[in-house]
Here is the input.
Amino acid sequence: MSRSRLLTPLALLPAVVLATASCTAAPPVQEAARIAVPALGDAADAEYAEARAVHPGPDGTLLVTVGNVLPEAPATLAVVDPDDAAVRVSAQLTAGTDPDTAFGWEGSAVVAGTVWPGAGPVAYALQVVDPGTGAVTASLPVALPEGATLSGSSAVLGSDGVLYVAVSRMDAGPVLLAVDPGTGAVRASAPLDLGSAAAVDDQVVVADVATAPDAGTVAVVAQVLDGHAVVVTVGTDLAPVRVPVVLAPDWPSSTAGAVAVDPDGTVYAPAYGRPGDGQVVESLFTVAAGEETATPLATLRVAADDVAVADGTVWLSGGTARGTSLSSVDGATGVVSDPLYLCDDGSGAVAAGDDGRVAVTADCDGGAVLWLLEPR
Here is the structure.
């Protein structure tokens, strides 16, 4: 799963941070709008649709991706007007599309993701959508490295105009691609070295990728199955800028599924594990620019599914027994807000803007929903 999580002022972009061990604060945002996002395709397919993420789109819009657990079913891209709080148009994507990210490019909306309709080789494509009509105007193939699998891929558009795609491989480590977002051509590629965190025969799955707003830093979270989550940080030339950083190396294992990077290059990644006494611990870790170790910033009650950072605030979304919720963490103090519960089911993905506004998408009451939230 991947998201370009820093939204321009409301062009603005499983579960949630709930509390630190010692301090909490009131949720800093409140619901401004709730928008239903219908899944396209047959009614039988729509039953298995899943809200995936929300991203900034062209001309101040928001792009909501809705996938499907059935490989032969189509995915949906919804173009949302945040000012009108309404879906402007929806596009039905190629059957078997598993969206990694969506973004605006030269006036169009583009969805990047794997395409596998249940048979044949795994493919990757950029599907170009007219944001006015919902028509898919082009599908641009992206050449995948040998051994690419469906086990995990993630993508993000950097502010340098490069699409960074991280891909898992069978019997080999993951690879990071630098892709032209207008053509799908691979400009460069490099293996992601996890160092001593992964043995030769370990299976490694890409969990997420994010870039700093200035595009100087690209961070990938990779998961060593039955091992630890590892943050690999590279520059725009795909060369490592530090050694791989293991999250919670003193735990027997750690699991992470999301990552975000702030303007100064600090990496934020929530992870959970069992430190040794059998009790599951959830923490938000930071890796500061120039550092080679991860530091816990806040202790959480549940694992976060998604993370975004904007203007010094870290936002986490996901699902708990009480449903979809959103919390924030002060990036300087580690103080965690009380959760804001949005729905009684589902887990969410989050996007945030420097103006304090936040967007969350999740499954709720049988369908995908987008919440727009504003500062209190």
User: Anything to note?
Assistant: Confidence is low (pLDDT under 50) at residues 1-22. The first helix runs from residue 43 to 46.
